[in-house]
Design a protein that fits this description.
The structure holds 2 protein chains of 2 kinds. Chain A is an all-alpha fold. Chain A is built from 9 helices and no strands. Helices cover about 70% and strands about 0% of the residues of chain A. In chain B, helix 1 runs antiparallel to helix 3, helix 1 crosses helix 7 and helix 2 packs across helix 6. The chains are: A mainly alpha, B mainly alpha. Chain A: Belongs to the globin family.
Chain lengths: ~150, ~140
């Protein structure tokens, strides 16, 4: 089981409590598709992904990014049992969406960078470490049901 | 693969970072030590606490070396030759750590440049740092 200190819990609830989901979610997903273009393979039906401008202004991507970010709320509310919380979503990503689990880390890194750009120096090394720990647990849980 | 536009963007960004090399370098190192404690094992001979002189001078060294490489990316192997030897035969830092520092440099840049750290800039610098790391590790074996 993952151990969380009181400080780590409050860092995570604070970040998500002050989050503009539409802004951050859409920026994180579009950044992922731009920085790691092979991830576009999962979004063939989303419309124009021709270049960075098209990706940044694509409304389907923006909506999906928001959805994915809200998906993290479950982990924030169940930090002591993230593994079980995401069992179903893990199966979905494996059996239905066929997403290579390595991609979860790529999106997680882009999310970290979008939040860093928003918070500036307030995104201290300690806060970054806690946020990355949280995302690593989520990423691991999402990959757990693959077989 | 870096386009001409990307190489120019990289050159410009690292030129702007040169005057604040100490701050950028120290910040990236501190982030790396906080998120990846194993990396601290390479610094047992230095004081790497926040604000320490060792941290600033070491961070500055690293950022200036990267900035030097950014000036002419096609010449990376030539520019980095002495550093290749240093890392392979003396420092012997496991190359997986280059990825960790690269990631933390990107986070530092995001904090420093805010919205200015566009996805295009992020992609270009990520690619550059990967290439830089690969060249740095070339003499390892």
């Amino acid at each position: 089981m993952v151990e969380w200190t009181e400080q780590e819990r409050s860092i995570i609830t604070n970040i998500f409590g002050n989050l503009d989901y539409e802004d951050v979610g859409s920026k994180a997903l579009s950044r992922c598709l731009i920085v790691y273009p092979w991830t576009q393979r999962y979004f063939a039906s989303f419309g124009n992904l021709y270049n960075a401008e098209a990706i940044k202004t694509n409304p389907n991507i923006a909506a999906h990014g928001t959805k994915v970010l809200h998906g993290l709320d479950r982990a924030v509310k169940n930090m002591d049992n993230i593994k079980a919380t995401y069992a179903e979503l893990s199966v979905l990503h494996s059996e239905k969406l066929h997403v290579d689990p390595d991609n979860f880390k790529l999106l997680a890194d882009c999310l970290t960078i979008v939040i860093a750009a928003k918070l500036g120096s307030a995104f201290s090394p300690e806060i970054q470490a806690t946020f990355q720990k949280f995302l690593a647990v989520v990423v691991s849980a999402l990959g757990r049901q693959y077989h | 693969m870096l386009s001409k536009k990307e190489k120019q963007l990289i050159r410009e960004i690292w030129e702007r970072l040169t005057p604040v090399a100490e701050d950028i370098g120290a910040d990236a190192l501190l982030r790396m030590f906080a998120s990846y404690p194993g990396t601290k094992t390479y610094f047992s001979h230095l004081d790497i606490g926040p604000g320490s002189a060792h941290l600033s001078s070491h961070g500055k060294k690293i950022v200036l070396a990267i900035a030097e490489g950014a000036k002419d990316i096609s010449q990376l192997t030539v520019t980095l030759a002495p550093l290749q030897t240093l890392h392979a035969y003396q420092l012997r830092i496991d190359p997986t750590n280059f990825k960790l520092l690269s990631h933390c440099l990107l986070v530092t840049l995001a904090c420093y440049m805010g919205e200015g750290f566009t996805p295009e800039a992020h992609a270009a610098i990520d690619k550059f740092l990967s290439a830089f790391s690969a060249v740095l590790a070339e003499k390892y074996r």
